[in-house]
Amino acid sequence: MSEAAPLLASLAPLLTEWLPRQRWFAGKGRPIDGFTLVAATEILPKSPTATATTPGLLHLLVRARQPTQDGTTHPTVTDDCYQLLLGVQDVLPPQLAPARIGRPAGGPLHGRTVYEGLADPRLAALLLERLRVPGRLGPLRFSREPEAKIPPDLTPRLLGAEQSNSSAVYGETYILKLFRRVGPGTNPDLELPRALAKTGCARVPAPAAWFEAELHGAMPMTLGVLQPFLAGSADGWQLALGALSVQADFTASARALGHAVAEVHLALAEALPTVVLRRPQLERLAEVMTRRLDAAAEAVPALRPYRWALGEAYDELAALGRDGHTRRAQRVHGDLHLGQALRTAADGRWSLIDFEGEPARPLPERCRPQPVAQDIAGMLRSFDYAAAVGRAAGTDWAERSRAAFCEGYATVHQDPREDPLLLRAHETDKAVYEVLYEARHRPDWLSVPMSAIHRLAGGHRATGVHAGLTRPPRTPPEDHL
Ligand SMILES: Nc1ncnc2c1ncn2[C@@H]1O[C@H](COP(=O)(O)OP(=O)(O)O)[C@@H](O)[C@H]1O
Ligand SMILES: O=P(O)(O)O[C@H]1O[C@H](CO)[C@@H](O[C@H]2O[C@H](CO)[C@@H](O)[C@H](O)[C@H]2O)[C@H](O)[C@H]1O
Q1: Where is the Maltokinase N-terminal cap domain (predicted)?
Q2: Cα separation, 232 vs 394, whole angstroms
Q3: How far is the CA of 188 from the centre of ligand 1 (A)?
Q4: What does the pLDDT read at residue 77?
Q5: Which residues line ligand 2 (CB under 6 A)?
Q6: What percent of the chain shows pLDDT beyond 70?
Q7: Which of 123, 177, 262, 444 could link 413 by a cystine bridge, Cβ 3.0 to 4.6 Å?
Q8: Is 60 exceeded by the pLDDT of residue 218?
Q9: How far apart are CA 353 and CA 342, in angstroms?
Q10: pLDDT (0 to 100) of residue 53
Q11: Closest residue (by CA) to atom 8 of ligand 1?
């Protein structure tokens, strides 16, 4: 698109105001001090026969420049790249008013109204049409599995519960996930489900189509994935809270879920390379966890008194390696929790979704093989969360669900409870991540992971001179794990 500079200049004030209000915007709480346009593609240009209500669709990749002091003593700058789908129209119909971004002053869109394009069913339908027919459009490449049958004219609806990304459901048949914070490389949420589909694993919806940006010299950047929609399903989080609200047992569901997760782990180990973790790798894993703890404690003062006690779990992990033990690592889900497991009402079968990994971690880190204990720890933490949010404190609901999950897992894979040191290290690492996540996104929920921190630290808080001190500096690990 020509006129890139005036386009960006006219959109910048609108985006500065609109972006931080989006659930998926990762840089909340820090000012935006500028934008860079990475790519602009007219998916639907304005036609000469267009009327005032004919929409245009503009695809943008923009970097938002933000200074940060988060978790570091020295200010740095982030410039995360975001994917935007902008509807453009002269007059916005009332039903699209909530999607309004604003009216650019100057530039090629001067005087027109710009809005969230996915909210407009006409534009969401257009995107599906592009995915049905493989090909290129400027820097965008649309691909489809040859055997995928994607009917035309499926009615779109934008999913209300926006999370780290945005999703649109088409005719209750397909769901398109549009990644919002994007970067070079294949997103594991495309890579892993495709690899699993090739093994015949039916626990994960297989991608039917996807689109990427191919920018000069860079690795293709995954922008969106279309996969079958599991109609009539409910996620594990809703189901667990539902059970808790009527004080019902959840062990049968947890057992079946454990079985499903173990099947996915076996299929991932079959589909993609696995590695053996020996002393250096186990020490590095412990070191990486320690660094994450230190960074989280810098950012969240409530964590500081627990640093020393929590660090013991990582020291014990490193000691495993020194004692000559080894562990296996493989590709894992990376951000497994009850919300990532869907159970279909018709057959009660569990499926797993959202293989993107923890959104805050860099892509290379999310793609590294890890012990399966990372995922298991994530799910075990989730039972704890459900019990806390569903007010099951004082009951053993979480303990019974956690045990049932492990039992189910052990029907097809190694029982995770047989490796308590590895599990404890991963559970600690997950709880530390959650403290940071809640502090940033839902401060009212901070007490949930903090009570796990207290438990995992054995109830020990450092007092006096040790409270708040950093651990002694060590040689930085090579970025292997
Ligand atoms: N294949 C699917 N079938 C049914 N619902 C789905 C499917 N994939 C995702 N969803 C729904 O969309 C929501 C968001 O999807 P998810 O991949 O977790 O996105 P995010 O990365 O934004 O959290 C999920 O919580 C789930 O309710
Ligand atoms: O689903 P996302 O990929 O966006 O994952 C992020 O958000 C999750 C919350 O929506 C967060 O999960 C934490 O809260 C859950 C309850 O809402 C709980 O079940 C999980 O155990 C807990 O970790 C997840 O950590 C974050 O990455």
Answers
A1: 18-120
A2: 33
A3: 15
A4: 81
A5: 163-164, 237, 335, 337-339, 354, 358-359, 381-382, 385, 434, 437
A6: 93
A7: 262
A8: yes
A9: 8
A10: 78
A11: 353
The pLDDT assigned to 463 comes to: 46
The binding-site residues of ligand 1, defined as CB within 6 angstroms of any ligand atom, are: 159, 163-165, 167, 175, 177, 205, 227, 229-230, 233, 235, 339, 342, 353-354, 356
> Side chain identity at 417, as an amino acid letter?
R
pTM across the whole model: 0.92
Please state the atom number of ligand 1 nearest to the C-alpha of residue 356. 21
Question: Which are the contacts of 359, defined by CB distance < 8 A and separation ≥ 6?
Answer: 26, 164, 181, 335
CA 274/CA 329 separation, integer angstroms? 6
Ligand 1 pocket test target in 23, 162, 163 with most atoms within 8 Å of CB = 163
Terminus-to-terminus CA distance in the chain, angstroms? 41
* Secondary structure (DSSP) of 260-318: HHHHHHHHHHHHS--EEE-HHHHHHHHHHHHHHHHHHHHH-GGGGGGHHHHHHHHHHHH
* The pLDDT of residue 450 is above 90: yes
Measured in angstroms, how far is the CA atom of residue 460 from the centroid of ligand 2? 26
* Span 115-145, pLDDT tens digits: 999 999 999 999 999 999 999 999 999 999 9
d(CA 235, CA 228): 16
Residue 163's nearest CA partner among 182, 173, 178 is 178
